[in-house]
Design brief:
With about 1050 residues, the chain is α/β, with parallel strands linked by helices. About 25% of the residues lie in helices and about 20% in strands. The protein has 20 helices and 43 strands.
């Protein structure tokens, strides 16, 4: 068992802490601990006050049931009154006239059932300061200390109190500063006794414990880091809407997004210590579909908002349904302002009874979540300012409140952000909700006087998206390490008022949702360097400590593999199947991950397996299949071009994996009696270069080789690593009638092996043999048989026995010649006999070069965190400026960024530099140094663009003048920077030749060199460095990391791929 496993198990044996929170619950007795379950009290009771908010009483009822889920016996709930009826929330639903506001009678929500009071059985007392008579009396009597929470947002204290009420010797008292503070205190107990927030939505098993104790120390939980923390249900067709349609009765206007559905969402949010919701919008109208929805949110103490395209508490579809379709004009304020003002007024009137739990979306976009059209930028800016003046006038008039007391936000999404630069004026008290680029890269943080606005700032982030460069909304492809870096960058710059994240269908994104909301609740605890700790805590909570370390490792790897490229963007051309063993390495990584996840699944108790399948195993199996299909299809195309029989075998394999994808969906649909059927209906194959979802899963194109007739070049073919060509015969990849293919070179600092394939491309089985003219160059096999009856190609690995190789400095070529045992049917006589050449570089670095990277194959590739040192300038801007390594971040290993995140933009004279020691053999007047940089945006605005700098110079010489490079172009209007689409698809700036991350240098002679790299602002994150001296070949993840002196063994470098 690993040290992490022992640590987790030790913590679990006696304590269960809410994820990241101070533990106050134990399952074993200790000094002064208070037993609340399993002791002498047969039916322990929770006491609340009838004067408290309905949502608090309802949550107390949940806690009573949670004890039943854990111990087998529900706690009872009392308000201290004998024969009390359940708490009631009264509301007046809006009448079905959605242009003129009126109500239709009175309706009620009923709270949990009460039991007659039993003071001697009371073990928990919960309530809100200023609302609960019981809590207020305890404060007045000096029995509880609330000085640390009074007047603070969503805070609570939990204390064991002696004789809190007459007849009760001891009880746990939960006092909240406000209703949600109390609710979070109640759910804190629920989570600590073992009820996961995802017990229903992800079927997390609840471990039984008969005895439960509360520790005597108590706790104080202060305000969350971010004031409003929530999720946006969006892009919900076909998945979530299909599931809702299957499980809830349709509403008059669409599928059943009603109060029964939203009650489950509200409970999840509160258990996750969130408070804010943007409801589903695509085919629904939250306030209209069920007139109970809006008051229900208020009753539950959920802060209701609406998306960036839905101002003034009205659903996007309301205007088209009840106004445009009724002849009341278009959604165009310059043409129809009177009607639209009335529309806004209705929204305010309908929301007024629930204003205490409302956060108003301001502004306006075009129809259907698009930009306003038909007007110039100046006219749009003036129009939007007029819109907001009208909206604020409506709020002030209808609510009768001071505008500064009404929380409002304006989401600066897409083109709206550009209007800020064009002079758009936004009232001081409106929160500026900056948006990411829809791909998890924050476009702006508060700068200059934006940081001191009374309305503050927030972030609208995405875990799901529909649009360019392509939809991604099937399953979880979020790398938590990236989320942590970007969100905490925003927080460091003052975006702490609102964090809202687009979660699509909700269900497949349980892990990133939890992580996002936990950061928003306590950003200091879950910093960028604590993602692994968070994942371990999450795994322990959901599955127990025994497998938590393994699950942490599995999900960390999954996050990297899935985030390299969204599954919807994986296509046959992406990963190379001829260069750097990339495709095979990708498949091997996924296979190992599947094996590890399946092993954990098999070892878990049956009760834990559904949740593990839903959150861990299913996405891993799905991700593997995606890559097997597309890399298989790419191999098929390459093999068909080489006329291999095995091209057809690959078609069969790909078809089998495609069928497995359908079977995986069927397994999901049948889980737990079909509980989540339709939730994963989302298509994910067949995008074919178009951004919108395909209507049905479709295989990528493949090619079938005619098997009844042999190739005119013979029954046996040969292909080599690094080339699409094959011999003998002609193709477009080598000279006509050419009989020679050249392998990438071998040297003592490069990969230990190269390979060539011998394969069948005909109807006969043929023996083959290979001979080599250089005795110290070795083949893994020198003969074999290929053909229809043999069923497989032969891959032969070429290596060098360095112990017997000449000890001279030279470059030589070994020649491999081939013969077959099937005569003229083997190699057709009119083509010359095939030859594979193996260049071998015999060379050594000087003994004085003791640490650094060594060139091989005219290439140096470096994982950026593997620097030799940080060089500090003599005139540093500040002594604390350094670099932070982001572990398990990015596409291959990690990333490195300037730190701290509040550091102002620097120059090479003021910033520290990363130093890499290199030994170069090749003279190259135009050596290219390319940085693979995370797809960050100009978050400080285009006026302060992000830059990096590079200098390459002989180690014994002065520093060369650094080349300072701006790599993120301007955003023009509604458009993102040029090159952005490829950067987010590839998950880096630097792979597309148009990306400006390459500098060129003159390497005039062999020798030791120093490479200095400066990230001149935080979030300029260097993942990998590739130096091309003329040998770099195309690939997605770049060449394998070069030989590192002091780490790697001479002549035995096993880095044949990025992995």
């Amino acid at each position: 068992m690993t040290s992490l496993s022992w640590l987790l198990l030790a913590a679990w044996v006696s304590l269960v802490a809410a994820l990241g929170q101070q533990p106050i619950v134990s399952f074993t007795s200790s000094s002064n601990a208070f037993q609340i379950a399993g002791g002498e009290i047969a039916k322990p009771q929770i006491l609340v006050s009838s004067s408290d908010n309905w949502g608090v009483i309802r949550a107390a009822g949940d806690l009573a049931k949670d004890f039943g889920r854990v111990t087998g016996t529900n706690f009872t709930l009392s308000n201290g009154e004998k024969g009390a009826k359940p708490a009631s929330y009264e509301y007046r639903p809006a009448a079905a006239n959605y242009t003129f506001y009126e109500t239709n009678g009175t309706q009620y929500f009923s709270g949990p059932e009460y039991t007659d009071p039993s003071t001697q059985s009371t073990v928990i007392i919960a309530g809100t300061l200023g609302r609960s008579d019981i809590i207020d009396s305890l404060v007045k009597a000096g029995k509880i200390n609330v000085t640390e929470i009074r007047g603070k947002w969503e805070s609570f204290t939990t204390q064991v109190v002696e004789e809190p009420i007459q007849g009760c010797p001891r009880a746990v008292v939960i006092a909240g500063s406000d209703p949600r503070g109390t609710i979070f205190g109640l759910y804190d107990i629920s989570e600590q006794i073992g009820v996961s927030p995802w017990y229903w939505w992800a079927d997390v098993s609840i471990k039984e414990n008969k005895e439960i104790f509360v520790l005597p120390d108590g706790k104080v939980q202060g305000p969350p880091s971010v004031k409003y923390r929530g999720i946006f249900l969006n892009d919900e067709q076909p998945g979530l809407s299909g599931w809702v349609q299957w499980n809830y009765e349709n509403t008059p206007y669409g599928v059943g997004y009603n109060g029964k559905f939203y009650a489950n969402v509200f409970e999840l949010l509160l258990r996750l210590r969130a408070n804010y919701l943007w409801p589903a919008i695509w085919g629904s109208m939250f306030e209209v579909d069920d007139t109970a929805n809006q008051p229900l949110a208020d009753a539950w103490e959920i802060v209701l908002g609406s998306s960036h395209t839905e101002p003034m508490m009205r659903a996007q579809n309301e205007f088209g349904t009840f106004y445009t379709n009724k002849g009341l004009g278009p959604w165009a304020y310059d043409q129809n302002n009177k009607t639209i003002d009335q529309y806004f007024t209705y929204g305010a009137q309908r929301a007024k009874p629930y204003a205490n739990n409302s956060l108003w979306t301001m502004g306006m976009r075009g129809s259907g979540d698009t930009a306003i059209e038909g007007l110039g930028v100046d006219a749009i800016v003036a129009l939007l300012e007029a819109v907001v003046r009208s909206q604020r006038n409506v709020i002030q008039t209808v609510l009768g409140a001071e505008l500064t007391d009404v929380p409002q936000m304006w989401c600066l999404y897409k083109e709206v952000m550009s209007y800020i630069q064009e002079g758009l004026t936004i009232p001081e008290d409106i929160t500026l909700l900056w948006a990411d680029d829809n791909w998890g890269n924050v476009r702006r943080v508060p700068v200059d006087d934006e940081k001191t606005r009374s309305g503050g700032a927030g972030v609208y982030y995405h875990f799901d998206y529909v649009g360019d460069t392509r939809d991604y909304k099937w399953i979880n492809t979020i790398q938590l390490e990236k989320t942590a870096e970007q969100m905490q960058l925003s927080y460091a710059h003052g975006a702490d008022r609102i964090w809202i994240v687009n979660v699509g269908d909700l269900k497949p994104l349980e892990i990133p949702i939890s992580h996002f909301l936990d950061m928003a609740y306590d950003v200091e605890k879950w910093g960028v360097s604590n993602v692994g700790n968070w994942t371990a805590a999450w795994a322990t909570r959901e599955f127990g400590p025994q497998q938590a370390a393994k699950i942490t490792d599995i999900m960390t790897r999954y996050g990297m593999y899935a985030a390299r490229r969204k599954f919807e963007l994986v296509e046959p051309y992406v990963y190379s199947v001829v260069n750097y063993n990339e495709g095979d390495a990708i498949l091997q990584q996924w296979q190992t991950l599947v094996d590890d996840a399946q092993a954990v699944f098999d070892q878990l108790d049956a009760a834990y397996q559904p949740a593990f399948f839903e959150m861990v195993l299913h996405p891993i199996l799905g991700g593997q299949i995606i890559h097997q299909v597309h890399i298989g299809a790419e191999k098929n195309i390459v093999y068909a071009n080489q006329h291999r029989n095995s091209a057809n075998d690959i078609i069969s394999n790909v078809l089998a994996r495609f069928q497995a994808d359908g079977e995986l969906t069927a397994r999901w649909d049948n889980l737990l009696g079909g509980k989540w059927r339709r939730m994963l209906d989302q298509t994910h194959f067949g995008y074919d270069g178009y951004w919108q979802q395909p209507m049905r899963n479709v295989l990528p194109a493949m090619e079938y080789v005619q098997s009844a007739v042999s190739s005119i070049a013979g029954n046996v073919g040969i292909a080599v690593e690094g080339l699409n060509a094959s011999i003998p015969g002609d193709d477009k990849y080598h000279a006509n009638s050419g009989n020679t293919l050249v392998l990438p070179p071998l040297d003592s600092y490069g990969p230990a092996t190269r390979w060539f394939d011998v394969f069948s491309r005909g109807t006969r089985d043929c023996d083959w043999s290979a001979t080599i003219d250089t005795p110290w160059v070795k083949l893994s096999q020198n003969k074999g048989t290929v053909g229809p009856g043999n069923g497989t190609d032969s891959r032969v690995f070429v290596s060098v026995d360095w112990s017997t190789a000449p000890q001279v400095v030279t470059t030589t070529t070994a020649n491999i010649k081939f013969t077959t045992g099937c005569g003229k049917d083997g190699f057709t006589s009119w083509y010359s006999s095939p030859v594979v050449q193996v260049p071998v570089n015999l060379r050594n670095i000087p003994s004085s070069f003791t640490n650094g990277f060594v060139e091989s194959d005219k290439t140096v590739a470096i994982e950026a965190p593997n620097y030799q040192r940080i060089q500090s300038p003599s005139n540093a801007a500040a002594p604390n400026i350094t670099y932070l390594t982001l572990e398990n971040y990015g596409r291959t290993m990690g990333g490195i960024t300037l730190w701290p995140q509040t550091t102002l933009p620097q120059t090479p004279d003021t910033a520290p530099a990363l130093e890499y020691d290199l030994y170069l053999f090749t003279n190259a007047p135009k050596a290219k140094v390319t940085l693979y940089l995370s797809p960050t945006q100009n978050y400080l605005s285009d006026k302060t663009p992000l830059e990096f700098a590079v200098s390459l110079f002989p180690a014994d010489g002065p520093q060369a003048q650094p080349q300072v490079v701006r790599f993120v172009p301007n955003s023009i209007g509604a458009n993102l920077p040029v090159g952005w689409a490829r950067s987010v698809a590839d998950s880096i700036w630097g792979l597309d030749p148009s990306h400006n991350t390459t500098t060129t240098w003159n390497v005039a002679k062999e020798g030791a060199y120093t490479l200095r790299v400066w990230g001149l602002a935080p979030s300029v994150i260097v993942q990998k460095i590739v130096m091309d001296l003329g040998g770099v070949r195309p690939s997605y993840l770049g060449p394998p990391e070069s030989f590192l002196v002091g780490r790697d063994k001479y002549g035995a470098n096993q880095r044949t791929s990025f992995a």
